[in-house]
Amino acid sequence: MTERLLICTDLDRTLLPNGNAPESAPARALFAALAARPEVLLAYVSGRHKALVEQAIAEYELPRPDFVIGDVGTSIYAITAEGWQEWPQWIAAIAPDWAGREHADMRRMFGHLADLRLQESAKQNRFKLSYYVPIEAGLPRLMAAMRGLLGEQGIRADLIYSVDEAGPIGLLDVLPASATKVHAIEFLMRELGFGIENTVFAGDSGNDLPVLISPIRSVLVANASADVRKEAQELAALRSTSSALYLAKGGFMGMNGNYSAGILEGVAHYLPHTQQWMKIND
After folding, report:
1. Average confidence (pLDDT) over 179-202
2. pTM for this structure?
3. Exposed site from 19, 64, 91, 210, fewest CB < 10 Å?
4. Coil, strand, or helix at residue 246?
5. Mind listing the pLDDT tens digit for each residue in 239-277?
6. What are the phi and psi torsion angles at 238 (to 5°)?
7. Considering the domain 5-74+179-277 in this protein, what is its CATH number?
């Protein structure tokens, strides 16, 4: 029986060459050749919402994936010839965390907190509540207030904070506690019948760490920052998952290990026979 392979990859600065490091010229075409194989299922894992994932696919001429885990893990779509179909079974899996509440209920709960400003409607969904927060806001006090309200209502939620340097403005997502990249990938693996022996994840940044240090076979592309590389190695060592973390270094097929070149390098590291699949048909 031909071995199946599930490739799950982050987009920005992992598959997409939109960082500061150079891209190896043949890498994306070789990645597309691999993704086109009948044995391979491809899932994009991104904080982007549906429209921004579609924009990235068009702009960078990416292969059409079989699945998209989007909105920071709060949505899973199956992609077919008929279009994008959201997976109701994933919604059913994460909904209990919010104890019967949905987006509008959560928004009302936090409505009196002056530092929170709702992000655009495209960046919201049923189980993702996203705010802008002024950089000068007292973040620890704000987060404590929000966690207090969540605790009172018996709601299991994660508060994910990051900074948009272009703003600069703070970004705060309120998500069901189980709606993370790693939980979504594990859910996809179970639903599709894949194990850790035939699944590979690729990432580049701090928000990929939960997957990178999990038992899921993972590759950190070579353009990842030194800080992320160090933290990933240290945390994987603490968790005894170092054998499931590969740091791309370049040299594979004459490429530099950045972006899609690093993904290919990692896949070949775990599954050497796949190197025969990484060819462009003439």
Report:
1. 96
2. 0.90
3. 64
4. strand
5. 999 999 999 999 999 999 999 999 999 999 999 999 999
6. -60, -35
7. 3.40.50.1000
Domains in the chain: boundaries:
5-74+179-277, 99-176
Q: What is the pLDDT of residue 167?
A: 80
Please report, as a single letter, which amino acid is at residue 175.
Answer: L
As a whole number, the mean pLDDT across the chain is 94
Give the C-alpha separation, 55 to 52, whole Å. 5
2 falls in which pLDDT band (50, 70, 90)?
low
**The domain over range 99-176 is classified in CATH as 3.90.1070.10:** yes
The Cα 33–Cα 10 span in angstroms is 18
Contact 132, 150 (CB under 8 A): no
Mean pLDDT across the stretch 56-70?
A: 97
Start-to-end C-alpha separation, the chain: 27
Closest by alpha carbon to 154, among 220, 105, 104?
A: 105
The amino acid sitting at 270 is: Y
List Cα–Cα distances, 162 to 14, 129, 132, 139, in angstroms.
18, 14, 10, 11
Which tokens go with 267? Answer: 């896949």
What is the distance between the alpha carbons of residues 67 and 17, in angstroms, rounded to a whole number?
A: 21
Residues 203, 10 contacting (CB under 8 angstroms):
yes
Beta strand pairing call for 117-118 and 129-133: antiparallel
Helix (H, G, I), strand (E, B) or coil at 126: coil
What confidence category does residue 281 fall into, taking pLDDT thresholds of 50, 70 and 90?
Answer: low
What average pLDDT does the segment 178-187 reach? Answer: 94
